[in-house]
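User: Reviewer 2 asked us to show a designed sequence for the structure in our supplementary figure. I'm pasting the structure tokens here. Could you produce the per-position amino acids so we can include them in the response letter?
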């Protein structure tokens, strides 16, 4: 996680060690959150875009049922029980509602993960988004575009976990090799907008859901 403050450290422990919804080791990518990351991210972005313009609390209210569902579907009964005990005893919060605390911590973890994914040049999230852009451009082109189709093949190679090609290209180099640098720059602008959206989401969640934030103290 990119933030070192107490709330974000606690969120990572709750999600990766207690609820076991994700893994702090990026090479272990078969977790519930990893398998459903795109769907989760898309829904949170949708809630933010649709609800925050009316009222920032509406975004939180719309997202919490999703967060609760992730916990109850993605975690086991035993892991959930251990997580609630951890909240009550180790975190010295005997009077807190463990379900609410775990939802807040999972929410914090997810928005922080979103920021990390969008700021990383070759993250799975950026590659997936690029695949969507290329697929859409191919479907809209009436004439065959060999460059786009070659890019599509290289992108699918990047996402294929069974690929034996150990020298996979970086995202930028794929476009450069196929003489589509301008298209890559266009896509990166979209990445930058997404990263900014997630940073705003992160700040909003931190401000509303973490007790130690100045506005909540």
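Assistant: Here is a per-position design you can include in the supplement:
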């Amino acid at each position: 996680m990119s933030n070192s403050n107490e709330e974000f450290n606690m969120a990572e422990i709750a999600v990766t060690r207690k609820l076991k919804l994700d893994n702090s080791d990026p090479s272990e990518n078969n977790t519930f959150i990893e398998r459903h990351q795109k769907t989760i991210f898309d829904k949170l972005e949708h809630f933010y875009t649709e609800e925050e313009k009316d009222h920032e609390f509406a975004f939180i209210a719309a997202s919490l049922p999703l967060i609760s569902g992730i916990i109850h579907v993605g975690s086991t009964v035993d892991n959930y029980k251990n997580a609630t005990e951890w909240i009550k005893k180790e975190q010295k919060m005997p009077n807190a509602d463990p379900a609410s605390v775990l939802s807040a911590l999972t929410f914090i973890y997810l928005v922080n993960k979103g920021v990390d994914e969008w700021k990383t040049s070759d993250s799975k999230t950026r590659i997936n988004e690029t695949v969507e852009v290329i697929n859409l451009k191919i479907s809209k082109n009436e004439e065959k575009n060999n460059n786009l189709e070659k890019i599509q093949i290289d992108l699918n190679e990047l996402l294929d976990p069974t690929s034996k090609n150990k020298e996979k290209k970086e995202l930028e180099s794929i476009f450069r090799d196929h003489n589509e640098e301008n298209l890559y720059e266009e896509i990166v602008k979209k990445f930058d907008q997404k990263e900014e959206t997630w940073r705003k989401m992160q700040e909003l969640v931190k401000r509303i859901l973490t007790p130690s934030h100045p506005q909540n103290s």
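For the response letter, you might also mention the following. The longest helix spans residues 181-209. Residues 213-217 have pLDDT under 50 and may be disordered.
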